[in-house]
Amino acid sequence: MRKALLYALPLLPLAACLWLLVTRSPGLQRQAGDILGLGATLCLLACLSVSPLAALTGMRQAGLWRQWYGLCVFILGVSGLVISATVGMQGFAGTVQQWTGTLIVVILVPAALTSNSLSQKLLGGYWKTCQRRAAYAAWLVLGVHLALLGGMAWHATAGFAMMSVPLAAARLPGSRRQLARFRRTRMSAPRVLRVLVPAGLVLLTAGAVLLLWLEGTAIFHAA
Amino acid sequence: MRRERRVARQARYARWLSLATTTLVLVTAATGLLMGVRHGTAFFSYPYTT
Fold first, then answer.
1. By the 8 A CB rule, do A102 and A138 touch?
2. Which of A108, A162, A172, B42 has the fewest beta carbons under 10 Å from its own?
3. Do A103 and B36 touch (CB under 8 A)?
4. How far apart are CA A61 and CA B33, in angstroms?
């Protein structure tokens, strides 16, 4: 049940936007942009959180979660792009913010297309590198996109930054080994790990709560 | 020998994918920038409005 909920949760923004489409909401473009954009941001950060959390908890099936959240980023991004390009007057690059949003979706196209077993087999060891490059490029451009949204989205930018700092730290060389070491030793781990790991988890959770709250508010206003 | 051939083929596919991705991103970025700049100053407008 909990697993099904975690699988279905990323598609909630899409359902909210379908509701906006059905009811022909006058603020469709703006509201859909907020809902889908925040949803895609949350999914990308969830996708990037899987590896560090798997190292920390020994979670199984990390690959499946990464794949699902990664595909959700793409689905939500494409939906946002379609709404932005068809409903508004400015197309897909009317403003610099829309332009960066479009770039994120385009960066994720090859990653989404190769997110299957056949591509994994065809690309072998290079598959992981390609996926990782795409995810990191999208992460970087998303940061620029949110920063360009400026004052209107400073809450989202703050949430993104709060989650990104520990996620970036967990990708420093040797970090995964240290996280696995913390999982094994817990209270007898070196003091620096006993401070940094909980601090990172608190920051990650706080950022996620902030972004979820913003997403919930956006969906609530749309409904 | 078979393994070497397989790895070489995988490297070739990865190069093609990388090249296709880079081309796609650069073309989209350039097209979007050109289209956006044609809108004039609105492209870099603040605050964000749609």
1. no
2. A172
3. no
4. 40
User: Helix A126-149 and helix A28-57: axis angle, to 10°?
Assistant: 130
Handedness of CA A202, A203, A206, A207 (dihedral sign): negative
Question: A204 near A49, Cβ under 8 Å?
Answer: yes
**A26 part of contact set with chain B, CB < 8 Å:** no
Q: Are the C-beta atoms of A83 and A32 separated by less than 8 Å?
A: yes
Cβ of B16 under 8 Å from any chain A Cβ?
A: no
> What's the pLDDT tens digit per position in B6-44?
999 999 999 999 999 999 999 999 988 887 777 766 666
- pTM reported for the whole predicted model: 0.88
Nearest to A95 among B18, B28, B43 (CB): B43
- CB distance from A30 to chain B under 8 Å? yes
